[in-house]
Amino acid sequence: MKKQQYQKQRRSFLKKLTLGIGSGSLLAIQGKLQLISSAMAATSAYSTLNDYKSLVCVFLYGGNDCFNMLIPYEQNAYKQYKSARTSLALPRNASLALKGNQHAFHPSMSDLQALYNTNKLGVVTNLGALLEPTSRAAILNETANLPAELFSHNHQQEFWQTGATAKSSTHPPGWGGKMMDLLIAANDKPNEPALFSVAGNNLWQRGQQPLDFVLNPYTGVSQIEAFQEDSWPEWKTSRIDAWNKILALKNSSLLNQHMTSTYINTRDRINSLISKIAQAQTISTPYPDENELAQQLKMVAKMISIRQKLGMKRQIFFVALGGWDTHGNQLTDHAIQLKLLNDALNSFYKTTVELGVADSVTTFTASEFGRSYSINGDGTDHAWAGHHLIMGGAVKGGQIHGDPIDLSINGPDDVEDTGRFIPKYGIDQYGATFAKWMGMTDSDLLDIFPNLQHFDAHDLGFMV
């Protein structure tokens, strides 16, 4: 039997075993789940991974107007762009030409231009939410199988992060979390969190196991506030003493036992992480203070610097920046947003160089959808296909990956004659390319990315 087939059958057996222990107590279930998790980690193909790699998802909430982030620079293509975008078209002579002089970045992206031109940053084009390849003809004759609510913020954020749309109140797990469910086996402590969000809870980070952790971008993590041992107010010490006595009580209630155990484990985990973050390497690379995304990425850098103290060979991070829903005042607002993105990514890349991990850390952007190529006056509307940035020493930088979008209004890629372009490549292909770089097997890619089976290419080729 082939190794991959054996591993898949083994995981299937263990999952069924997990479902079969439902008659036990909550504590018994928790203990058995941990044993099963440890057993899966010990026998996993990923337990032998010895190098270090991490993945950083930068989610741009609201829908980034990628068509003003990356514009045509060649003379004839630029004329077509200016004709379509009219008053929102960026001046060609102010745009930042990329090597080859076929495309240019927005004027706010000077540092990212330099990273692109030195092969440390690339662009993936023609990307969007797809269940399977489709065409304008299939959409117009209503035979296309499409994701639900294509131009809805909430639905498309969920689809980007999970590859599906919930049909009930239960959301599907995210592909970041599902990756870590398996990659955790590479780490020294396979029951400890290795997926960190610095932008609150999100669907992308949630897998089948509780391996994610939310960090504060400024403090990392704090002790549980109500029970911190400080001297004020005066009654707080007595409350802490009372709480510790409650925790020490012997209780016959299985629910109480479970709650006590969960609290103690959480407290100990928090205290351990506080101690390790305090040992983070001092970062000399400057980060802009008034930049929310930059501060999130600085905390990511700190977590990467303590990877060995945490026993991590695989880490995944989620950061985010809102404000990309530019229906109006776009020229001003989008320039501010792209400046924030430029400064944050530039500082973070320089930090990976400082930490000696530039080749081991890959950063990528995601956003629920692109925006319309045509304009609504002084902004753009929700659309579909778009471009995304990929950054790191392992990226095939200095290139635009993928077949270009035909940017013709009412052209073969335009679904509604307004510049809502149909993507050629799906999010599952995008994510699978990163997952393969992280060391994941082809069979696991199909388990993690629910729509990947419908596409011929499982690797878009933008990683070394």
Overview of this structure, please?
The chain has 2 domains: 43 residues; 335 residues, Alkaline Phosphatase, subunit A (3-Layer(aba) Sandwich), CATH 3.40.720. It is built from 15 helices and 12 strands. The two termini are 31 Å apart. The strands form 2 sheets. Strands 1, 5, 6, 7, 8, 9, 10, 11 and 12 form a 9-stranded mixed sheet that branches. It has a 3-stranded antiparallel sheet with strand order 2-4-3. Strand 3 and strand 4 form a beta hairpin. The N terminus is likely disordered.
Kindly state the number of beta strands.
12
Biggest beta sheet attributes: 9 strands, mixed
The average pLDDT score comes to 90
Helix content: 25-40%
Computed CA radius of gyration, to the nearest angstrom = 24 Å
Low-confidence stretches: 1-6, 12-33
CATH class of the largest domain: Alpha Beta
CATH topology of the largest domain: Alkaline Phosphatase, subunit A
How far the N terminus sits from the C terminus, by CA atoms, comes to 31 Å
Structural class: alpha/beta
Along the chain, the helix and strand elements come as HHEHEHEEHEHHHEEHHHHEHEEEEHH
Strand coverage percent:
5-15%
Q: Tally the helices: what do you get?
A: 15
CATH architecture of the largest domain: 3-Layer(aba) Sandwich
| General form | globular
Count of distinct structural domains: 2
